[in-house]
Amino acid sequence: MTGYRYSVYTRAARLALIEKAVAYDYHEHDPFAPGAQGAHPFGRVPVLHHTGARFYETAAITAYVDLAFPGPALMPERPAAVARAVQVISIVDAYAYWPLVRQVYSHAVFRPAMGEPASQQSLREGMERAPAVLAALDEIAAEGLVLSGPVTRADCHLAPMIAAFVQAPEGADLLRRYPALAAWWQDMAGRDSLHLTETPLP
Predict the structure, then answer these.
(1) Does residue 74 lie in a domain region?
(2) Using CB atoms within 10 A of its CB, is residue 32 exposed (0-12), middle (13-18) or buried (19+)?
(3) Which terms in the Gene Ontology molecular function aspect does this entry carry (predicted)?
(4) Element (H or E) spanning 88, and its range?
(5) Residue 63: which domain range?
(6) Helix 8-19 × helix 58-68 angle, to 10°
């Protein structure tokens, strides 16, 4: 697999591989480096190569990992639970990534650590948008079909976003207001797969 150490989507794919107990080779690729040319046609990460085929887009990669390899199933069996897992993945991509990661985490944590300029306006906007996202996810966690038991692809996709978000003190404080989601994160954060995929900032 090719990925970027600071990419939450790379981490999501790696979580799926680890939770599925799949051994893999990892190759680092910074898609933001000048002149970077990777295997992804749109210049993104991660990319998974297996049996001569190339898979990109994280949801496609985690789906392939779950179906192509033996090991614990990363999707539930009940139709309603499957739908909820897919719903969480869609929420992550469409509504969670930008405010939680690109606005709050990036401007409160990542950019300052990298010596890059941060925008307080972007941080404020992310914090304003985050409650709607967390409330929707908290409702799903409280329902108990996913985000409440065995690890699924939904957990793999969501965990890197929350891991980034709570590194900002504002994010950690806000998460505590959503008890079901906070309880899920407390359990998820203790898993070996999360520790094995941690990348400390400089």
Answers:
(1) no
(2) exposed
(3) transferase activity
(4) helix 79-91
(5) 2-68
(6) 10
What is the distance between the alpha carbons of residues 160 and 162, in angstroms, rounded to a whole number?
6
Contacts 24+ apart (CB under 8 A), 22-27: 22/65, 22/69, 22/71, 25/1, 26/1, 26/2, 27/1, 27/2, 27/3
Is the confidence at residue 37, as pLDDT, over 80? Answer: no
Would you say 105 and 175 are in contact if contact means Cβ atoms under 8 Å apart?
Answer: no
Q: Does residue 202 belong to any structural domain of this protein?
A: no
3-state secondary structure of 39: coil
CB contact burial 174-198 (16+ within 10 A = b; e otherwise)? bbeebebbbebbeebeebebbeebe
Per-residue tokens: 89: 């993945």
The SS3 call for residue 56 is strand
Strand partners, 53: 50
Q: What is the pLDDT of residue 134?
A: 99
Residue 22 sits in a domain of what CATH number?
A: 3.40.30.10
CA pair distance 31, 74, nearest whole angstrom? 28
Statement: the pTM of the whole predicted model exceeds 0.85: yes
125 and 182 inside one domain:
yes
